[in-house]
Amino acid sequence: MKDELEELYKELNEVKACDLDYLPKYGYSSKEEIIQLIEEDIEELRTELECSQYDYTPDELEDERMMLCVSQGLSRYC
């Protein structure tokens, strides 16, 4: 996934450096639209990387914390 992220950053830099307003490589879509789509892809991939960096999804982590507190007889929230 890190390689894919690097590729997206390279692609984003190429698009930003292009002098054309409409890019033939992307079916003559506007430069701004392509930049926005690539940035969205980057954000999605970064989110996936953050989640996969740990063994738990955010919901699973919350459940695990709750069960730990319950098993020790502690209140999860004060």
Walkthrough of the structure:
The protein has helices spanning 2-17, 31-52, 58-71, and strands at 22-23, 29-30. It has 78 residues and is mainly α. It has one domain (2-71). A two-stranded antiparallel ribbon has the order 1-2. Helix 1 (2-17) packs antiparallel against helix 2. The model has no long low-confidence stretch (mean pLDDT 88).
What labels describe this entry?
78 residues, mainly alpha, two-stranded antiparallel ribbon, 2 strands, rod-shaped, coiled coil
Structural class: mainly alpha
Q: H/E element string?
A: HEEHH
Overall residue-averaged pLDDT value = 88
Radius of gyration, in angstroms, nearest whole number: 20 Å
The global form is: rod-shaped
Distance between the termini: 39 Å
- The total number of structural domains is 1
Approximate helicity band: 55-70%
Tally of alpha and pi helices = 3
Please report which band the strand proportion falls in: under 5%, 5-15%, 15-25%, 25-35%, 35-45% or over 45%: 5-15%
**Total strand segments:** 2
Largest sheet: 2 strands, antiparallel
Low-pLDDT stretches are none
Strand order of the largest sheet: 1-2
Keywords: Coiled coil
Coiled coil: 28-55
Quick take:
Keywords: Coiled coil. The protein is mostly helical and 78 residues long.
